[in-house]
Design a protein that fits this description.
alpha/beta; Rossmann fold; five-stranded parallel β-sheet; 6 helices; about 15% strand
């Protein structure tokens, strides 16, 4: 498996699904898993062990212990993509940004960008993905250039 999208609860699925759609469009193999660092920590560790050569994208809000716990237990890249919560005016994002020393998940707030970050990591060794990322970036540039008022 190239990427594991690990959600803290099933209520995170609609957000995580946006990540999956981008990965799918690039032909990247991924799976969804659900486990909570607070409620099912043993299951989190089982998932980390099971996918010990994958990139992890963690999707958990509120007190996001999931990203740090996964990162502390793998040598693989971890990308934290916490859903924005209007209820707390976004302040719960701080639990994804402040990690103890030696715990270093990347934090990417937009689901599309979390997927792109994972794809870029994979593209370091997979030339077909490098080409797809280059095409994606050209398309994004064209979107801006085409929107410029003349």
């Amino acid at each position: 498996m190239d990427v594991v999208i690990l959600m803290g609860s099933k209520s995170d699925f609609s957000f995580a699904e946006k990540i999956g759609k981008v990965l799918e469009s690039f032909g990247v193999k991924f799976c969804y898993r659900v486990a909570s660092a607070h409620k099912t920590p043993e299951r989190v560790l089982e998932i980390v062990k099971e996918y010990d050569d994958s990139i992890f994208i963690t999707v958990a809000g509120r007190s996001n212990a999931l990203s740090g716990m996964v990162d502390a237990n793998t040598c693989c890249p971890v990308i934290a993509c916490p859903p924005y919560c209007e209820k707390f005016a976004g302040l719960d994002i701080l639990s994804s940004l402040r990690m103890p020393s030696g715990i270093a998940p990347l934090v990417v707030l937009e689901p599309e960008n979390a997927a792109v970050a994972a794809i870029k990591i994979l593209a370091m060794k997979r030339t077909e993905l490098k080409g797809k990322i280059a095409d994606y970036q050209r398309k994004k540039r064209r979107e801006i250039e085409d929107s410029i008022l003349r």
